[in-house]
Amino acid sequence: MVFLDYIFNLSIFSLLVSTPLVIRSFINLKPLKQVHLGVGLYGGIVSVILVMLSFQQAGYSYDIRYAPVILVFAYFGPVSGFLTGIFALISRLFLSGHWSTAIIGWTNIMVVFSLIHLFTKQLTAVKKCMILYGAYLVIYVINVPIIFHVFRDEPFFHLQYLLFVMLGVIVGVLLIESYVKLHRLNNRLSDMYKLVESSESKYRLIAENTSDLIMLMNKEQSISYFSPSHEMVLGFPTSDLEKFELCKIVHPDDVTMFRNSIMRMFEQKESQTMEFRLRHKEGHWIEFESRCMPVRGETEAIENIVLISRDISERKKSEEILLQSEKLSIVGELAAGVAHEIRNPLTTIKGFVQLYKVENSSIEYNDLLLSELERIEAITSELLTLGKPQAVQLDRTNIRELIENTLELLAPQALMNNIQFNLKFEDAPLIVTAEKNQLKQVFLNILKNAIEAMPNGGDVYIHLNKGLLDECVISIQDQGYGIPEELLPRLGEPFYSLKEKGTGLGIMICHKILKQHHGSITYKSQIQQGTTVEIKLPLAS
Fold it and tell me: Where are the beta strands (DSSP E) in 402-529?
């Protein structure tokens, strides 16, 4: 019967210890060590319940009320332990006699437990429980059977009691430690979840706001993820891109290379960089450079490939400009060499013509010959500027007067080709800071191109007006054959000409001269409707 009483007592104790721990696991409360008084009070209530469930033996009350006292002392210190102990003592005194034995034993236990706490602060709670239980065992043996002669002839009775108190302590330690470890594990998992959530949020923030295209491709070469930047760069909504194969928007000339590169990465398990073109929603093609990185799975096999692509259209344009600059440099060197060779004999011819003029001043062709020789000399000087930039003499120049002079020079050629010049301008003079001969050469080249574009005759319209940004705008419009739109960007490249016998150097020199004058030139053209050339030069302050 006594054994069953202990079993019942131990079961109730286990229930009372586990109930608050289970409740706390569902409620985010403060850690146990921050609620000392509350735990001491609850421990006291548990002791009272255990005393109420105790069994009487010769006027003595037997229960495992000291199990919660040991646990509270070990985990929460002497303050909470004293509070639990007081409840246990009062309930014991209230329920049965032999007060002196109970009070003396309780006092010895509290004093010894307090001293043990002072010397075991650095130990874990489990080790404290072991030491406290050992101390309790010694105090019990000395006080109960030896000093007070309680059931001295029944050692099995005392052994049974101490065993169940020990079981109560062990059960309590197991429950509390399990809860503490689960609580720590739960906190770690919660922290890890927050960390993962934060990292995912950061990566998603980067993926959703970068201008680079980020794609995730599997072994079947289907895309499982498109970054939102696809919509901004390609114009397709992400929902539409997910519906069709990526190769449908890859340029037909790049599809084979693209597929082979992807297959090679899955086989060789190495990252790779490649360039390909993707179709914009509006139909034009955009060039991309893509960094492809294989992603390994649990079996070390490549399961996905991450493609990070960047629009390199501007870089390609820069490379073309650099290539064009290199061509210009070569052309400039060649032109400078040719001009240098021409100037040497030209100087000799000019000198002899001047001597001949002194001796034969009556011949009317001398001035004409000298004028043409000076013009040839000026042209060779311009060729030299291609190879080596020279200092130019900038003066205030009236653009209207300069164009009128140019039109006078071209009047005979225009008359022969049945061309009419129509000049319109504002009343206010348009003054720019420029080198007159260089600008005249620009207008000569463009007007001669306009004349040659109209073999059957026609009108050339020249408009002068002041622009919005303190600039002079010169617009020259012909009625010629026109230029295909896709060829307009190539105008100004060396050796590129639309004329059968053209060299491509005339427009190139025009571009160079206007650049030196901080101006610009643009072209608009339609087939069979003519071409409009617009030149802008900053007005003189």
Answer: 419-425, 431-434, 458-466, 471-477, 520-526
- Exposed / middle / buried, residue 188 (Cβ in 10 Å: 0-12, 13-18, 19+): exposed
Using N-to-C axis directions, what is the helix angle for 36-52 and 78-95, rounded to 10°? 20
Q: How confident is the model at residue 1 (pLDDT cuts 50, 70, 90)?
A: very low
What are the residues facing 463 on neighbouring strands?
424, 475
| List of residues 6+ apart from 68 with CB closer than 8 A | 13, 17, 43, 46, 47, 50, 84, 88, 168, 172
The whole-chain average pLDDT of the chain stands at: 80
CB neighbourhood size of 267 (10 A): 9
Residue 522 above 70 pLDDT? Answer: yes
Q: How far apart, in whole angstroms, are the C-alpha atoms of residue 408 and residue 416? A: 14
- Lowest mean pLDDT, pick from 122-126, 344-348, 519-523: 344-348
State residue 463's pLDDT score.
92
**Residue 27: what are its φ and ψ, rounded to 5°?**
-120, 135
What is the β-pairing status of strands 285-296 and 223-226? unpaired
Half-sphere exposure of 183 (CA within 13 A, CB side): 18
Would the CA dihedral through 15, 82, 92, 127 be positive or negative? positive
pTM over 0.85: no
Q: What DSSP string runs through 77-125?
A: -HHHHHHHHHHHHHHHHHH-S-HHHHHHHHHHHHHHHHHHHHH-TTS-H
The token pair at 456 is 């059957």
Cα atoms in the Cβ-side hemisphere of radius 13 Å centred on 349: 14
Residue pair 436/402 in contact (Cβ under 8 Å)? The answer is yes
Predicted confidence (pLDDT) per residue in 198-230, tens digit: 777 777 777 667 778 888 888 777 887 888 887
**Averaging pLDDT over each range in 91-95, 356-360, 392-396, which range is the top one?**
91-95
Q: Helix, strand or coil for residue 217?
A: strand
Return the percentage of the chain with pLDDT > 90, whole number.
6
For residue 238, CA distances in Å to 177, 218, 234, 276 come to 52, 18, 10, 20
Whether 533 contacts 519, CB under 8 Å: no
DSSP letter, residue 150: S
